[in-house]
Write a structure and sequence with these properties.
The complex is a heterodimer of chains A (414) and B (167). The longest helix of chain A is centred in the first third of the chain and has 30 residues. In chain A, α5 packs antiparallel against α6. Chain A contains 18 helices and eight strands. In chain A, strands 1-2-3 form a three-stranded antiparallel β-sheet. A three-stranded antiparallel β-sheet of chain A has the order 6-7-8. In chain A, a hairpin with a 4-residue loop joins β6 and β7. Chain A is mainly alpha-helical and 414 residues long. By secondary structure, chain B is an alpha/beta fold. Chain B has one domain: NADH:ubiquinone oxidoreductase Nqo5 subunit (Beta Polymerase, domain 2, 2-Layer Sandwich). Helices cover 19% and strands 28% of the residues of chain B. In chain B, the strands form two sheets. A five-stranded mixed β-sheet of chain B has the order 1-2-5-4-3. In chain B, strands 6-7 form a two-stranded parallel ribbon. The radius of gyration of chain B is 19 Å and the shape is elongated. The chains are: A mainly alpha (414), B alpha/beta (167).
Chain lengths: 414, 167
């Protein structure tokens, strides 16, 4: 009798067997794994609680806020001009585009027209920033997946552009070069020469990056068919930028709500098919070529002219006048300490940053400070789709998915 | 000035519950009463003429002097029709609950959680309404409310500061 019992225990061990509840079974349980907040591939301080079944991701819960600095609250306390340096610290690898998006939003609130030369210069610098952003993304993504060489090549070329920024505005990362109504200063002939040199130098280097990746079996294996999201889901989750275009949705604000000098330039918007990591990689690399094209066209079309809107009650006086002229100095002081009188109302203005749609929703009740300023940060919204996109993939793919969003926690946590 | 076609359409469809239709600087906004919120959102999402399939952001504004203190703001975009709309509703402080729109736009999940975290507005039928940027055990209130001090409160209030620098 005892012998038979033992035998049935062995055979009825399968959990779906009708009598399995009464019989001892092998114990299986999901493993909870904390990834982060200090993990090299989380691009900052992000924790994700992974529920694992073996090596498969069953559920992942992002835990954010480690870099929350209350930027939206700070905005309510300062004048509109004072907030520009805060926007640098949102997405700290792409400060220029944050400045741009913010200044555009305030200009929409004020109904302010920016002079044409300033629009061209803004577009040039924004596209330079897009190149830097995509280089940074490519190097980080490749490094996460284990392709280290690309990192060095990208950073070598990124350094040229950061030095160019340094010469332009005196800072490499936290630039604050855009101003409400225009820009801080014009490009010098030396900067234009350097940029033209870079445009000739750069396209062969993009091919060089691809040599390491596009025939690399490890890269293809770890990006093709990984983190697939369908077009409907991507739209429903509110994804934007290359992540949305990778799923085949042709949505680029530069084309569909054209701003600045983009309508005057010819460029195409690469759109993927499969919605996997490889397509998103391909889109970003193609955008590098497109950015080069846009900068070239802007440099050709650009005419001489003013770089600041003619609205002295709002815009800052030129720096040389501030240092020599008493009235200008008083005006500068008043604009920074009290601000200008913005009309009451509310606007939303979205800008296509290299990560996605970076938007500012500003509520004004008049006076010099925004009553409420909400930042629509693409990184934050992309993290909302993390669980959906990671489900069913291997644990090592979690790093790939962080990378494919191009998440920067400064922007995500604000 | 004629009304924006989107606003005309909404006005025709809903006889009650629409409390404001505005257009300013090209932005179209609809204010609805709280009980009609989900119905209007469903219309914006499903109607072929509206087709707002893309959620842009969820936000909230605090108006401490008003009877209905909080304003919750959703912004939608239509990828196919290329149009934007803003949907707003007001809630009083005593009953800070609105319907969640996560069943229509999945992206609203994290965005509504942020509104809950920052402003303390609850969303009915939200799948996982927890704090998102502040720590889970944060009890000092909701930071973006106007009565929350800029420099924060809580633990720091217990610090013993010296009145003057000792010699």
């Amino acid at each position: 009798m005892a012998f038979e019992d033992q035998r049935t225990t062995v055979y009825k061990i399968h959990p779906e067997h009708p009598e399995s509840e009464t019989l001892p079974t092998l114990r299986t349980e999901e493993l909870l794994l904390n990834m982060g907040p200090q993990h090299p591939s989380t691009h900052g301080v992000l924790k994700v609680i992974l529920e694992l079944e073996g090596e498969r991701l069953v559920k992942s819960t992002p835990v954010m806020g480690y870099l929350h600095r209350g930027v939206e609250k700070l905005a309510e306390d300062g004048t509109y001009h004072q907030f520009i340096p805060h926007t640098d610290r949102l997405d700290y690898v792409c400060a220029m585009y944050n400045n741009f998006a913010y200044c555009r939003a305030v200009e929409k609130l004020l109904n302010l027209q920016v002079p044409e030369r300033a629009e061209y210069l803004r577009t040039i610098v924004a596209e330079v920033q897009r190149i830097i952003g995509h280089q940074f993304w490519l190097s980080a993504q490749a490094l996460d997946i284990g392709a280290m060489t690309v990192f060095f090549y990208c950073f070598r070329d990124r350094e040229i552009l950061l030095d160019w920024f340094d010469e332009l505005c005196g800072a490499r990362l936290t630039t604050s070069w855009y101003r409400i109504g225009g820009i801080e200063r014009d490009l010098t002939p030396s900067l234009i020469d350097k940029l033209k040199q870079f445009l000739d130098y750069f396209p062969p280097k993009i091919d060089e990056y691809q040599v390491f990746l596009e025939k690399n079996r490890i890269w293809l294996g770890r990006t093709k068919g990984v983190a697939v999201i369908s077009a409907e889901d991507a739209v429903n989750f509110g994804l934007s930028g290359p992540v949305l275009r990778g799923s085949g949705v042709d949505y680029d604000l530069r084309k569909y709500e054209p701003y600045s000098a983009y309508p005057k330039c010819e460029f195409s918007v690469p759109v993927g098919k499969n919605g996997d990591t490889y397509d998103r990689y391909w889109i970003r690399v193609m955008e590098l070529y497109e950015s080069v094209k846009i900068i070239r066209q802007c440099l050709e079309q650009m005419q001489d002219g003013p770089i600041m809107a003619d609205a002295p009650s709002v815009t800052l006086p030129p720096k040389e006048r501030v240092f020599t002229n008493l009235e200008s100095m008083i005006q500068q002081f008043k604009l920074f300490s009290q601000g200008f009188d913005a009309p009451p109302g509310e606007i939303y203005c979205g800008t296509e940053a290299h990560k996605g749609e970076l938007g500012f929703y500003i509520v004004s009740t008049g006076g010099g400070k925004p009553y409420r300023l909400k930042i629509r940060a693409p990184s934050f919204i992309h993290m909302g789709a993390f669980d959906h996109m990671a489900r069913g993939y291997m644990i090592s793919d979690a790093c790939t998915i962080f990378g494919t969003y191009d998440v920067v926690m400064g922007e995500c946590d604000r | 000035m004629s009304m924006h076609p989107l606003l005309q359409r909404i006005q025709q469809t809903f006889s009650v519950g629409i409390t404001g239709l505005t257009e300013w600087r090209g932005d179209v906004a609809v204010t609805v009463s709280r009980d009609k919120l989900h119905e209007v959102a469903q219309f914006l999402h499903d109607d072929p003429g509206m087709d707002f399939d893309y959620i842009v952001h969820v936000s909230s504004v605090d108006w401490p002097d008003d009877e209905e203190r909080f304003e919750v703001v959703w912004e939608f975009y239509s990828i196919r029709k290329r149009q934007r709309i803003r949907l707003k509703t007001r809630v009083p402080e005593s009953d800070c609950v609105v319907d969640s729109l996560t069943d229509l736009w999945k992206g609203a999940d994290f965005m509504e959680r942020e509104v809950f975290d920052m402003m303390g507005i609850r969303f009915r039928n939200h799948p996982d309404l927890r704090r998102i940027l502040m720590p889970d055990d944060y009890t000092e209130g909701y930071p973006l409310r106007k009565d929350f001090p800029l420099r924060g409160k809580g633990w720091r209030d217990t610090f013993e500061f010296l009145d003057e620098v000792p010699k």
